[in-house]
Design goal:
With 328 residues, this protein is an alpha/beta fold. It is 22% helix and 32% strand. It contains eight helices and 22 strands. The protein is elongated and about 70 Å long.
């Protein structure tokens, strides 16, 4: 067990957690970051490193991996202790601090900030009997390198932002791209859908993938089926699936936190129902909540400032601006 008591332990090393680390440094707080993944960046690193992000102020568009790299650099301002592949199990109040137990040890912390996103996650599978034989070879649930699909026939499955963005990003990389969606309407942002419809991507709606054909893990074609049973054969080299993620908050569900399904309820101070435990980003819910990276980046300083005031009631809740801290 580490005998040092840090001011705040951030559980989750995605964008919100990384920005919270930076801001905690601005408030002269000692920081620890825990994440169950082997690298920082959360879903952006794990699933979408080569996907563009469009909804963060100051970036007309930025690759997820570049955005994460900047956040990691910025997070170092607090000189955090970073512990990867470590899962938080329980948190027990002892006097003026928490005893935080993980699957690898015990940590002492005055406050806790939950920024675990959607929690532990795995992609929702396509659900075909032949899936295992193609998975990781020509059936994919994320894109790590766009160049892997150069001059290939690619089928993208899904109707959300990631599926549409992937299809558009592959437009000038693959020999041809087809996007198939089981519904007529898309859940992606309207601008992205309009861009998709104006692109070279072939869009097929109201169909699903019934079967993948091929040998030795290499797809050769897929069978698409309509609701009325009508089938269509489509030649492909690779199938990319984005049907969302199956997520779980795991042990956090046993902490006694007030929940709304898989989200932690917070107030306007980002406080949970447990004194000294805060939450920010996609893990949270409150009236009017919108789950965007930009929103999480705004919630992080709110949580940090109130955690600072909780630790030190004499501290100013409204700190100086960063322009006052960083001077030429």
């Amino acid at each position: 067990m580490s005998e040092e008591i840090v001011d705040i332990t951030i559980i989750g090393g995605g964008p919100t957690g990384l920005f919270a680390s930076f801001y905690a440094g601005m408030r002269q707080m000692s920081v620890k970051i825990l994440d169950s993944l082997p690298q920082l960046g959360g879903q952006l690193t794990e699933l979408y490193p080569d996907k563009y992000i469009y909804d963060v102020g100051g970036f007309p568009k930025v690759l997820a991996k570049d955005f994460v790299a900047n956040l990691v650099e910025q997070a170092q301002y607090s000189e955090p202790e970073i512990l990867l592949e470590e899962t938080a199990i329980s948190a027990t109040r002892e006097g003026d601090h928490f005893v935080l137990k993980t699957d690898k040890g015990v940590h002492l912390t005055r406050t806790i900030l939950l920024t675990a996103g959607i929690g532990a996650f795995q992609p929702r599978k396509i659900g075909l009997s032949e899936e295992e034989g193609f998975a990781g070879k020509s059936l994919h649930y994320s894109i790590k390198e766009l160049s892997f699909f150069k001059d290939k026939q690619v089928l993208v499955c899904g109707g959300g932002d990631s599926a549409v963005d992937w299809a558009l990003m592959l437009e000038d990389v693959a020999s041809n791209v087809t996007l198939v969606h089981r519904r007529e309407r898309f859940t992606a942002h309207e601008t992205s859908v309009n861009q998709l419809m104006a692109s070279k991507v072939k869009v097929i709606t109201s169909r699903t993938v019934k079967q993948i054909n091929g040998a030795d893990g290499q797809a050769e074609s897929v069978v698409l089926v309509e609701k009325d049973g009508t089938e269509e054969l489509l030649s492909v080299d690779h199938v990319i699936v984005n049907y969302g993620n199956v997520s779980s908050l795991g042990p956090l569900k046993e902490w006694g936190l007030e929940m709304d399904r898989t989200s932690v309820l917070v107030n306007s101070r980002m406080e949970t129902n447990i004194e000294g435990i805060y939450a920010a980003g996609d893990i949270t819910n409150y009236d009017g909540k919108v789950k965007l990276i930009a929103v999480g980046l705004g919630e992080a300083p709110i949580a940090i400032n109130h955690a600072k005031a909780y630790i030190d009631p004499k501290a100013r809740l409204q700190p100086l601006h960063s322009t006052s801290v960083f001077k030429e």
